[in-house]
Amino acid sequence: MSASTAAAIARSIREGQTTATEVVEAHLAEIERTDGDVRAFLEVLGGTALEQAKAVDAGEVTGPLAGVPIAIKDVLCMEGIATTCGSKILEGWRPPYTATAVRRLVEAGAIPIGKTNMDEFAMGSSTENSAFGPTLNPWSTGHVPGGSSGGSAAAVAAGHAPVSLGSDTGGSIRQPASLCGVVGMKPTYGRVSRYGLVAFASSLDQIGPFSHTVEDAAIVYAAMAGHDPMDSTSLPESVGDPVGAIGRGIEGIRFGVVTELAGDAIEPEVAAAFASAIEGLGAGEVSLPSFDHALSAYYLIAPAEASSNLARFDGVRYGLRIDAADTTAMMRRTREAGFGPEVKRRIMLGTYALSAGYYDAYYGQAQRVRTLVANDFGRAFEDFDILLSPTSPTTAFEIGERTADPLAMYLSDLCTIPANLAGIPAISIPAGVDSRGLPIGLQLMAPALEEERLFAAAAELETRIGFDAKPALTGGAE
After folding, report:
1. Which of 7, 438, 3, 64 is nearest to 214 (CA)?
2. Using 50, 70 and 90 to split pLDDT, how confident is the model at 477?
3. Domains identified in the chain, total number
4. Is residue 409 assigned to a domain?
5. Which of 96, 175, 313, 385 is the most exposed place for a label (fewest CB within 10 A)?
6. Which is catalytic among the residues 172, 178, 290, 307?
7. pLDDT, averaged across the chain
């Protein structure tokens, strides 16, 4: 049961072949059996999940995801349930409201089964920056699951939930999806409401699904996307029919390989799997020269926005408070105790980039590079409908391998950052495994608002690749 897709689970419940209660109980049992090895969850919502399952079984809740368990990244608010963002500064905070994306999924019948671990305030590429300890990769527990949504990716890979939610600021859905051998999708910026998402970088953050199949990703996306008046950046355009796009095929779709994302920085085994996965597509090559500067621009823009967003964590309004003789000392002591090293590093970097005398040279220049990235995408999409690249330059690296070298860690986002800077939709699908049995991801990128095209192409490639490897944790080969 725990390995079933969301579509299959929802169908079996509708047809009376199983009950939502049985489904939830099976997934809770799987969490109990193996999450001690993975540490995907910060909190398991067993009691409330079973209550919601009973409501589905009683016919009180219906919808396309009725009875389907879903894991929620702990950066998304759920009323009355602790939301920590992987940080001690929010330990124990219980929000008085629920994120729009979560609420819409619950209204569609999905059952939140737990809050998943993450890099603190979504700052990281390995889920080693969590204040509550790292999440481990179900394919090999000596390796990272990617980040920052590593808990959500690992939960799906380990069979703890058929689908989960993450947030993607510079690749935090797609990169862990690649490293954990699952599907991970980032929508167009503004397609999914950010209301109730604790902000990292407001002009980059976007919520998206993890799943075993492209179809499941489309179902979850369709259920939560759409305009929300609670988010001023929410787009009014119709979401269309992303689920209906599954099975349309790729006839007439022009594919292009981004040369800047397929060079020497890509591990040979990753490059080989990528080449094999796109064989037969007739893909052309396209050069997007601004991508050479995208990583540097991102690591100025995102920290700058973070330094502003995280100023609200001051020990006064919510979360941790370390008392002192005066307010200034209290704030200093609270932030010193509450924020981890990576968050402090990015706050200092972002504050410096925004400071008088340096704003134009750093933040302003980075925003100009961002415009160049968007313009490069625009020109590329005149000749191609879908752009392709590896999702991550490497497969999962070992726990602790990059923690002492922030620059090496940042390079994990090399292939994913451009889509965030431009605000376009992108998806990672499994494309193979390396010689150690660790998963490799293939990234597809589409023009803004073209999620239907993205899902159609990804579903066809998923079928052609036929990825069927399983993590060691769930009975697959090591």
Report:
1. 7
2. very low
3. 1
4. no
5. 96
6. 172
7. 96
